[in-house]
């Protein structure tokens, strides 16, 4: 009709994008398969696929010797190695960097310990070292990186800072975008650790089948991340999921039951007290069992507040304490069932200590995809920040 | 390209849809204006618009005598009267039905009182009477109705029942879809009153500018409805917003401060006690002022739990008590500011007692639009339920 002529160049680009999408979703495909997946004709796909190889978006898998009948078809695959992204977890006790290709396959990781009381300057220097080590050891330069996402503890405001609150000493005014902006030309994202752990659980963890997820991070601090209708929710000002700040829902006091449990040897430091209590409870220690039960009762109040508010399909319990999910999940389920109108599934995290950094990786990958599929297809180069 | 030919009939339909959309969004438009809005050529719009008139989707506004230069252009407008929808609020004390055209313009309304202790049979009979009166007085038959939405008190489960909990006597097993299905061939929706009031506030009320809204219904019961990213959230099983059921957030006890306020005359019934207390507080009565302050303090705890969880742009306070927003909003703002990390705007409802029925109307209109714009355009007839 009237607009069809004017839209033809755009249509060609859209057809190219649909081939890229079809390539991304599968390991490798022939022209026939791509034609079936996209609804485009075989000759059209043939032209588009060769163009994508020229531009660097796709590579050709030549047929192996295993094919015996007729001329085997060449296969195309998305060149996930065209670019890389960095996901970094800046935690209280550690900094962990993950480097992946555009498919999210991790090609390198570096983890350094950091003192809980390290100031902002010291923590930033350690962050720089971890990133440098990760790039150097993987044979990459900042120009190879298409996106960086950094996870921090505390809600992230509109300026990318944790100005509301953060337990990291001196971190409230740290501007990570500015700090890393000198080295990376690509977009640099900063996001809250609980939110990113939630994203990771849906990507590769315990809630891959769910669109409505309440993630609870259990540790010496208790936090939450929310996925609603498949989308990570930041809230209007970035402070969604911060219900832990409200005294009556008892998350502020919950971990103290473990830390102050009678019987913890004086040789065990405060950071290891909870692990000692979980082990003792597992071994049948009565005081330890009581402490765990009290922890779960308090944990359940805040969790029930989230469940009653959002009515999610799944609650995922992650964080350091989720290593002791065997002691926590059953009583947590019972309490939620007692307190709520409808009881969601309650599952333990399957990602362990890497969840937050994995979520950062996923955030960066999503942002790269948004740019690719909105800006249209040029040859793959590391995009600059706006 | 390859698919363009095969997609042409679909393209024509899509172009028709875009003209219908352009018509719906504005009072009336010339072919030139529609061409500008849709990006389609004038000749194409001309053909499409005449087809829409033939099919009953649009009507022609012939130019009036006010045009003096040249031949004035005829204008097309969406025929909002092609169909009608019903929004009904089945409350504890009243049943209110609103009848509107497809633009949401209300053409008739009927309100009946109902006893708070009326059983399900009595309340259903009253509902039937209200609907009959509304249709008859407006000169409509059930065949003219394209959608019906009923608001009820209590979370609505997947079967359309309030099986989790409802304060309406004997209502838990009521199947409204079955009850009304004999009379109406169109879809019948059932939804929770607080959720629908939230929808109404965004449609025509206090939060038309916001996409992230926490709606709090204040009355002898306190409830919540959530709009996140512009979409009303039901939760996985329909029980989102039911945080009021959690004792520690103090909504269960909040209205009792008003009901049990010292000094309420024995002649004032329990349903009117709150109104008496608000008036007395306004007149300077000390006990009444204390009762209002205690109510707001408790109201604020649950509201803060929602704000800390979702970090909305706006909190709307509605329901019966919002008539006394002059006494409630300022202290509520102070408490939220004290308890939360980031403070949203707090506004009073502007819709009064019609909010819930208006929300039902909007839910039904949204559903009609979904059907229109997904199924494609045939002539406008009342659609049947699936």
Automatic annotation (TrEMBL), chains A, B:
Listed GO biological process terms: regulation of DNA-templated transcription
Cited InterPro entries: ATPase_NBD (IPR043129), ROK (IPR000600), Tscrpt_reg_IclR_N (IPR005471), WH-like_DNA-bd_sf (IPR036388), WH_DNA-bd_sf (IPR036390)
GO molecular function: DNA binding
Tree of life domain: Bacteria
Cleaved signal peptide residues: none
Pfam families referenced in this protein's UniProt entry, alphabetically: HTH_IclR, ROK
Domain called HTH iclR-type: residue spans: 16-58
Annotated family: Belongs to the ROK (NagC/XylR) family.
Protein name, as recorded: ROK family protein
